[in-house]
Amino acid sequence: MLLYELLAARHPFGGGSLPSVIARVLAADPDPAPSIPADVWAVIDRCVQKKPEDRFPTTAELVGALELARTPGTVGTVGTVGTKSIALGWWHTHQLVVALAYWLMAWPAWYVHKWTGRYGVLIFLATLATIIVAGNLRLHLWFTSRTYPSELPAQRAHVGAGIRAADVAFALTLAGTGLMIADSHTGWGALLVAVGLGAALAFLIIEPTTARAAFGAPQNGRSRNSGNSRT
Q1: From CA 156, how far away is CA 144, in angstroms rounded?
Q2: pLDDT tens for each residue of 100-145
Q3: Do residues 53 and 194 touch, judged by C-beta distance below 8 A?
Q4: What is this structure's pTM?
Q5: Using one digit for the tens of pLDDT, what is the confidence trace for 142-157?
Q6: 3-state SS of 206-231?
C-alpha cells in the first residue's frame, strides 16, 4: 500500500471514514493508477490480493519481482511476475555456476599442458584467457543485475559478444586439448572433451533459454543492436 501511495499520491482504497475504508479493503480491489507502470502495478496488485496464497509467498520473491519491474525491457503481469522472478533467479544461478565451472577448469588445463608438446604453454594461456573473459564478464553481469538492475540490459548488450566469443574459444581449446592427449592419457582427455562439449551445450542451448525466460525475447530492432547478447 505504501508503494501505491508513493506512486499514485493517494490511498489505494480511497478516503472517507475509517469504517468505509476498512469495508473497501475487505471487499474491493484497488484501481490501477495511471502514474503506476504496468509492471509495478502487477507487483502491487499481487501484494494486495485477499487470499494469502495469491500473494508472494516469500519476501525474496517479492524483491525479485520488484527488481524485474525496474529492469527495462521486461514485461510482467499478475500471473507472470512471480514466474519471471523465478526465471531471473535461474539466470543468476546459471551465471555463477558457469563462471565457477570455468575457473575450476584452470587447474586441469595447467596440469595437462605438459602433455601437449611444445605449444602446451600457449594452449594453456589461451584457455586461461577464455576463462578470464567469460568467467569474469559473467560475474560482472551477475553483480550488475543484483546491484544496478536498470543497467543490466545495456551491460548485456555491451559484453554479450565478448562472452560468446570466449565461450566458443573455451569449448574449442578444451576439447582440442582433450583430443590431443586422448591416446596417452585417456581419462584426462575424456574429461576435457566432456567439459568442452558441456560448455558448448550450455552456451548454445541452456543459456539462451534461461535468458529468454528471464528477460523475454528481444525485439527485432534491439536484437540487431545488441549483437549476441544472449547471456
Answers
A1: 10
A2: 999 999 999 999 999 998 899 999 999 999 999 999 999 999 998 8
A3: no
A4: 0.63
A5: 998 888 877 888 899 9
A6: HHHHHHHHHHCCCCHHHHHHHCCCCC
